[in-house]
Design a protein that fits this description.
This protein has 509 residues and is mainly beta. The protein has four helices and 32 strands. A hairpin with a 2-residue loop joins strand 11 and strand 12. It starts with 14 loop residues before the first helix and ends in an 8-residue tail after the last strand.
Length: 509
Amino acid sequence: MQQGRHNAVNPMIDRRRIVSMLSSLPVIALGRSERVGAASTARGKDMATPAIARPTLFSSQSMWNATPVDPLLGDIAISPHQTPWIEEGAYASRIFFAAQDDPPMTIMGRTGGEDIQVANEGVWRSIVIPRFPADTMPATGTDGHCTIIDPVTGLMHGFWQLKKVGGQWRATKYVASPLAGTGFGTASNPDNVRASGTSAAAGMMLASERGLAVLPHALALCLDLSSFSSGPVFPATMEDYKGVHGDYTGTPGHSFKMGTLFLLPPQFDAEALHWEEARVIARTLKRHGAYLVDATRGTASLSAEIGSGWSRSSVNGVWQNSWARDVKQIFDALRAVTSVAGWLDADGAPFTPTPWGWQNILSMRGPWSAAKGMRAGGLQGRYDGAADMYLVPATSTPCGMTKHLVRRDPAQTASWRQWMTGQAFFSNPVPGAEYRLAAVGTGMIDGRLLFRNGKYQQIGATDNLSPGEERTFPWPADATVVEMQINKPAGPEASIRLELTTRDPRAAG
């Protein structure tokens, strides 16, 4: 459930609630119908070490592609008062791959204006997808999720409430994220199209993965609002907009936070399940688990690609009670992970996940203003989320831009949301810690950080850094306000991103 879902038309008319009420009745399959064959009905032989394919989405050290080592599980079960479900219909998503010769497409806002919420940019505008597949079709539910992968740029174009109105494509929210990225939000770009700050494609059981003995990634789990308590946990960066204000109704000790990892215990007998699809899901949940990434009304669901056939709830229009039993056994046995001894990446190598405080904590999103003394020419350029750069066009005179950042206040309700104004850190810098400031970009341009205390007095500044330059420095103890400055001389277009990172253990919490 995304933050804008409360503004959607008839948000309470939700197919999930209907499924919850009618779960005991025959239904028509949401995905494609297939004959019941030996591969689906025969009980599989015990497979101690099933073959694993390499994941096709995200980096090898993405938490989606990681395997926990020696995990410890809690003893709290998911509430039985929600219908177990494999979602591959109206509230799922599908991946479309752009071809090099696909034409561009302009996407307007929900009302037809230039008002799409562009995640991580902090602005509302229209967008242009450089290569838009002709067969693009978003999910039909109120979420309207859809993902386009562009191999040319290496970007994933994610949409929320994408739909076609009178020949015009419209969406409420859009995000561009790297295909080789984490699949979760980051400290500098926490937002995406799902409530948890993840891509709609992340954790989805793909049509192309049918036939595998175990999937090479964790799955995406959604639970009823009554299963949540507020406050996202790593690797999730966000939660539902109104989760902290009463939408999350979970009780202490019997609820879970957005981003929680669930696993099936090692003693769960995946091979005793009736359906091969269920056995594959169970094997995957024993190895990689499932991350809690979104909220539902009435169901506990795992996400599958639209029409992929992972759900066997109905075959040739006939309700399959054996499938319902398999899925219920799986959900009844899922438990939250309380600790792990370590992690293995997609190649089986040990690695340490990068916590928020060790990621780049500096975002180039606005609001920006023209620097003092250079306001006659107005603000030049803008932050572009797809490029993750501040882009400045060619100018005939020098220009300067500035923005301010303050420390996130953890004492405030839903403090993790303070970054959305563009004027607060998602992860606060640690006073006294050694930080590295690096400039990335192109052209003649530079940037720096200027530090001010609580009285707004300047107490220090870094050097001006051009693309390719970097400096290390201890973070000033009294820096309560950080001013980012960008300077560009007259001349051709240029771009810049400032990155602020540390490996100080105090920042890893």
